[in-house]
Design goal:
Blueprint lengths: L1 H64 L4 H55 L11 H30 L1 H107 L17
């Protein structure tokens, strides 16, 4: 009986030690996965901070360049568009990388599922001479963790290989998209310049028409003023001529009156002096006395 008990105790101790070792390995795996996740999170944070810094620098540069004149504005607009193109190209590259990772992970998971299920069925079978102390859920959890680790490593390796293989293709695609974006941006800039030239041409034409209209109005006003001045001068000249004519007539009348007066005075003097027998003869007659 003692021997049977000692024999029965030994596998239990073995089972407990294996269970502790599994727990330790599981905790190690969890800590390593957590450290990897934390590193991945830190890297993603660094990338997001870098992208924010780039976007902030781009925005600050665009706002600072907006205070310059027209030519510098166009240059800053071109630079901001180039930064936008680079950012879009980087986003497209990251999207392609994520798609490749997801595609590879799905393929790898589909290929590894039968192996893991077979492994699970093997692990669920109890060892000969031992009791099955572990539950199927714990075994499944261990298998899933191990499978997740292996899948992660395989996916990482496969993604690196795939990226290395398709590096030139991705770079060509990115260069192609960048070139298309540049071409589109150049077309838009040319169209914008053409619109600005057309707007300036219309504004210049409107300004010239306004200046011509104002000039014509001024010329009309000056012509009207000149006409009024000429009319006033003509009236003034006519009035002056009329005054001169009236003065002449008055002078002639005065001269005529003066001559008549002098003539009358002379005639009276002649009468008084009796010159030229102008004096009447006196006749005397005697009346008889009665």
């Amino acid at each position: 009986m003692g021997r049977s008990r000692s024999r029965s105790k030994s596998p239990r101790r073995h089972h407990k030690s294996s269970k502790h070792s599994r727990k330790k390995s599981r905790s190690k795996d969890r800590s390593s996965s957590r450290s990897r996740n934390s590193k991945h999170v830190e890297k993603s944070k660094e990338r997001s901070s870098k992208s924010r810094k780039r976007s902030r620098s781009a925005s600050t540069s665009s706002t600072s360049d907006a205070s310059y004149d027209g030519s510098r504005r166009k240059k800053s607009k071109g630079r901001s568009k180039m930064d936008e193109v680079d950012r879009l190209a980087e986003m497209e590259r990251q999207r392609r990388v994520r798609e490749a990772e997801q595609k590879y992970e799905s393929k790898r998971c589909s290929s590894l599922l039968p192996v893991h299920y077979a492994h699970l069925s093997i692990m669920q079978e109890p060892l000969p001479g031992t009791r099955s102390a572990t539950t199927p859920s714990k075994i499944l959890k261990v298998v899933e963790e191990e499978a997740a680790k292996r899948i992660e490593l395989l996916v990482k390796k496969r993604v690196e290989e795939e990226l290395e293989k398709r590096k030139e293709e991705i770079e060509q695609e990115v260069a192609k998209r960048v070139e298309e974006a540049k071409r589109k941006m150049e077309i838009e800039m040319m169209q914008e310049l053409e619109r600005q030239r057309e707007q300036q041409r219309r504004e210049e034409l409107a300004r010239q028409e306004e200046e011509a209209r104002k000039r014509k109005e001024l010329e009309d006003i000056m012509a009207e003023n000149n006409k009024k001045i000429e009319e006033a001068q003509r009236k003034l000249a006519e009035e002056r001529l009329a005054m001169i004519e009236e003065q002449r007539k008055m002078d002639e009348e005065r001269q005529k009156l003066k001559k008549e007066q002098e003539k009358r005075v002379k005639e009276e003097q002649k009468k008084i002096l009796g010159k030229n027998n102008s004096r009447p003869k006196l006749s005397f007659s005697l009346k008889p006395l009665s």
